[in-house]
Structure formats: C-alpha cells, structure tokens
Amino acid sequence: MSNEKHHIVPYRTYIFVLLALIVLTFISIAITHIELADYTVAGALILASVKTFLVLTFFMHLKFDKPYMRIMVGFVLAVFLAVIIITFLDYYYR
Amino acid sequence: MIHHDSHYDPEASKIGMWLFIFTELLLFGGLFIIYSVYRFMNPDAFHLAAKELDTTIGAINTIILLVSSMTVAMATSAIQNKNIKLTQILLGITVVLAIVFLVNKYFEWSAKFDHGIFPGSEHLINDMSKGEILFFGLYFVMTGLHALHIIIGMAFIIFVMVFVAKKKVHPERYALLENSGLYWHLVDVIWIFLFPLFYLIT
C-alpha cells in the first residue's frame, strides 16, 4: 500500500492557486463596496464557496486523491447544505 | 531509514483526518447556521454592528492565512521531493504567519475592548440593541474558536517540524505532515467564510 507512487504537485500550481485566491478575496471586498442590495450577501458567499473549492481541490489534494475521497467530502457538504436549506425553508415561511 | 517494524498506512490515516475534519464542520457549521438565522431575524442590527469591524485588518489576516496554506501545501511537495531543508523552511514560514495572524487578532480584539465592546460589557448591554449584542456575541465566539484552532494548528505543525528533525517524518513516511496540512487548510476554509460574513457584509 505504502509503495504506491504519489503524485507530487509542482510548486507553481500552488502559486497559481494562491494568486487566484487573493484575486477572489479582492473581488469579494470590491463587490461589497458597491451596493447590490440583496445580491451582496449572495455574491460574497458564492465567492467564498469558489475559494473553498480551490482550497479543497488543490491545497487539500482532493484532485489527486482517489475518487472515493471526493465523493465522501462532497456527500458531507451536500448534507450540510441540505440542513441549511431546510432551516431556511422553516424560517422563511413562518 | 524505512521502518519495516511499525505499521504505516497513509491512506487510512488520511481518511481518519478527514473524518475528524467532518466533526469540525459540525462544530462550525452549527455556529454558521445560528449566525444566518439571527442575521435573518435582525438584518438592520447586524448591518450596523458589522460596521464596527475593521475590514483592512480582516483582509490582511485573510491574505496571511491564504499564504500560510500555500506554504504548508508546498511543504508536502518538498518532502516528496526529498528536500528536508525546504520542508522545514516552509513549515517554519507557516508557523510565523500563524503568529502574525494571532498578533493581528490581539490588536483587533484590544481595539474592541477599548471601545467597551466585549461580552457582558456595560456599553454592549445598555446602549446596544438585542441584534447588535447577538452579532458581537457570535463575533467573539466564532473568531475566538477560530483563533483557538489557529493555536492548535500551529502546535500541530511545530510538532511535525520536530518529527521531521528527528527523522520520524521523512520522504517515505510523511502522512503526519500531510494531515497537519489538512488541518491547517480547514482553519483557512473556516476563515474564508468568517471574513465575508463578519467583516464584509455591512
């Protein structure tokens, strides 16, 4: 098992991911300065989700792991999302 | 170098780390849901209270954590490339960045305390609305719990550095290093959501 050849991620991949993350951070700061009313929250959360996707995929190596790892993480995140949606269905229609 | 005597299964230990990360999601996920519901019920108070927070210091801390995440991820590549010196340097940078993050947090919280904003303070109880009290309560609990995770992650990485120095973690056996990285990225991901929710959405 431990003799399997591991994929070594080149350093520049990480540098590109970091640059993308920093750009996304500045975009999220910029969009909250423009008044988009209700879309501000949605925009900031979508950008945060994109950043999380990048961190999970590259920094946390999910891209290079076996598929079952991705399925496991995806499933847990889907359950969490479902809990949020159900909670808000409750509060929104009270 | 290679220990044939002890059991070593990097894939299993990685799964173990992920399972632990899922329990962390329960902890912080619950708090994020509480935040969302209270925000939904007190939109104006949250809007007002969030203006008290310093976006600049929040943004600086975001960049610090993103860079530290990159260095710890690079440390895994470095040890796979059998470059022990670079591994230690990258882990060292991560620890230094963690300390810088905590110093920033110290100044940020001190500024809040100076303005009379801390859990149970008179200013908070007498002059602020229920929604604002909720906002600051969540702010201190969530950023405080996050800072605690920074301290634990930092200790974990220092622990790994000692193991690398003692050659207990080496290019044939680096699962512990990878797992400390996973923990550190989790701390980063939590901050990726804390930053817009507390500092940006004003």
Secondary structure blueprint with pairings:
The complex is a heterodimer of chains A (94) and B (202).
Chain A: H1 11-33, H2 38-59, H3 67-92
Chain B: H1 10-41, H2 43-50, H3 55-80, H4 84-114, H5 122-127, H6 130-165, H7 175-200
Helix pairs in contact in B: 1-6, 1-7, 2-6, 3-4, 3-7, 4-6, 6-7
Overview of this protein structure:
The complex is a heterodimer of chains A (94) and B (202). The radius of gyration of chain A is 18 Å and the shape is flat. Chain A has 94 residues and is mainly α. Chain A has helices spanning 11-33, 38-59, 67-92. Chain B has 202 residues and is mainly α. Chain B has one domain: Four Helix Bundle (Hemerythrin (Met), subunit A). Chain B has seven helices and no strands. Chain B has helices spanning 10-41, 43-50, 55-80, 84-114, 122-127, 130-165, 175-200. The longest helix of chain B has 36 residues, at 130-165. Chains A and B meet through helix 1, helix 2 and helix 3 of A and helix 1, helix 3 and helix 7 of B.
Please write the string of helix (H) and strand (E) elements of chain A.
HHH
The tally of strands of chain A reads 0
Determine the mean pLDDT of chain A: 88
Content-based structural category of chain A: mainly alpha
User: Could you state the order of secondary-structure elements of chain B as H and E?
Assistant: HHHHHHH
The rounded Rg of chain A comes to 18 Å
Count of individual beta strands of chain B: 0
Which characteristics define this entry?
heterodimer, A: 94 residues, mainly alpha, 2 domains, 3 helices, flat, B: 202 residues, Four Helix Bundle (Hemerythrin (Met), subunit A), 0% strand, elongated
